[in-house]
Amino acid sequence: MKKKIISWLTTGLLLFCFALNSNAQPPRGPFVISPQILPDKKVVFRYLAPSASNVRLNAQFEKAPVPMVKDSIGIWSVTVGPVIPDIYPYSFSVDGVTVMDPANPDYFPNERFKASLVDVPGFTPLLHSIRNVPHGVVSYEYYPASDGLTGTVMIYTPPGYDRDQAKKYPVFYLISGTTDTEETFFKVGRVNMILDNLIAEGKVKPMIIVMPYGNIAARTAEQKNQPKPADPTGRDNPEAVARSKAFEDDLTKKLIPWVDKNYRTVANRDSRAIGGFSRGGGQTLRAAFGNLDQFAWVCAYSSYLSDEEMKRSYSHIIDNVAETNSKLKLLWIGVGTEDFLYSGTAGFLNFLTANRVVYTSRISGGGHTWMNVRNYVAETAQLLFK
Length: 386
Prior knowledge:
Layout: H1 2-24, E1 36-37, E2 43-48, E3 55-59, E4 66-67, E5 69-70, E6 75-80, E7 86-94, E8 97-99, E9 116-120, E10 137-144, E11 150-157, E12 171-175, H2 184-187, H3 191-200, E13 208-212, H4 216-223, H5 238-262, E14 272-277, H6 279-289, E15 297-301, H7 307-313, H8 315-319, H9 321-327, E16 330-336, H10 342-354, E17 360-364, H11 370-381
Parallel strand pairs: 12-13, 12-14, 14-15, 15-16, 16-17
Antiparallel strand pairs: 1-2, 2-6, 3-4, 3-7, 5-6, 7-8, 7-9, 10-11, 11-13
Helix pairs in contact: 3-11, 5-6
């Protein structure tokens, strides 16, 4: 009898609390679907803002902000396109304030504003599309960093890595650009999907991919509860070079040994590649040229070093060019003709040519975008460790 009374009281109390909690919830707004990709590759964007007076779409595939129209219940919408299939960042401007799309869980990892992402699929699968092939694994990892704090890194292991415990793999270190995080090559570059698809086609040798966070100063500040320091102006001023050196030391003295200890790597220079985009490409070139004993494969995406820095800090690359060419199994440099770093990269290629440094170049269309980077990754991955 006592158990029944307690059960009745408990049930009553739960019902009372549920009713109280339900009454305390704010009224739900209308359900918003955004983005909505139509069969003809047009895309509908929607944003709920009944009180707003002006909402615009900002999208990488549009040359200017696109006005949106409000319906009777306060949902703003616009249909654009057809859009060339690819992955694009976008945002909304609501009465002059830039915001993410709250209806979309996919976003661009960044130290600052995080734009939303829309993935417009191709009529046939694109190189980064999810396909019915064996898939690798992407893991979030932590390692003891050079500043005594904790480093963050993402690591891709290829399909079959966990099955054969005796097999070892070459390693490709991939570094994102200014304001990007260790997640960007994964969430925007979709490097795991690209590798899965190319491995399934027999075009790429299975490899481990290590994606570190390139901004050591920001990481240190965050872990010490300090404000993020401003990014240096200019790509080769003393502060930028010093920060790149800090990354290089962390990479070569802490991260690489940690990866070799905790993953089944082929731990030698012939089985170690490094690549990067924008600032990460500059870090790539500095780390590689300063450590030819550790890297034999080098991929610079939309990046360069100035003639002055090459002569000042890496004179051994050109003074001993025969040795350089024998050690570098691949020096690959790619840039788009509309990229704001095109001129500097073109000058770097001319410098290498004049000094007889052997390289492979890819001059594509387009600008400083992750659409180009995904293509560069796919192309260079097929050249590595062959």
